[in-house]
Amino acid sequence: MMIGTPADIIKYTRAVQILLKGYSGYKKGKRIETDKQIREEIVRTSIRARQHMQNIHDRSVDDDNIQAVRNARSCMQEIDALIEDVEKSSSGTTHAFFAGQRTVSNKDLKALIVHDHEVIEMLTGAVNLSNDSERALQQRSEELIPTIQRCQQMISSCRGFYTERSNLLSGLKN
What is the pLDDT at residue 3? Predict the structure, then answer.
C-alpha cells in the first residue's frame, strides 16, 4: 500500500497506538522498544486465537468429534508456528536490528508502520474467526469446520505476511 501524504501515516500510527499504549511509530531512540511492542502484541493476539482453538479441541474430544479435533489441532499448530516465527525472527534479539541504525528514511519507516498495522489487523480477524468457531461449536452449527479452516488460512496468510516484515527491516538503510 502506498502512502500519499504525511497525513496518511497519521491514521496508521494512531490505529496502532489504539492497540499498543506507548507506540511511538519507530521514532529515533524508540525503535527497539517499538519493535518489541509489536512482537509482543502479535504473540498476545495469537495466544487469544489459540485459546479459542484449544477450547474447541477439548470440547470436541469430549464429544468424539474427530473432524473438529483434527482441524482445531491443525489450526493450533499453525498458530504455534506463527508465534515461533515472531519470537525467533531476526530483530527479536537483545541486539535488535534497529540498534545499529543511525538514519532511516521516513519512507521506510512509514512502510514498516503500515505493515505492522496490517499484520495486527489480520490477526484480529483470525481471533474473530476463532471466536466464531467456538460459537459455532456451542450452537452445533454446520459452519464449525469451515470457520476453523478459514481461521487457519488467515493465520497461515498472516505468517507469510509477517515474514515480509523481515524484508522491510533488511531494506532499511544505514
Answer: 47
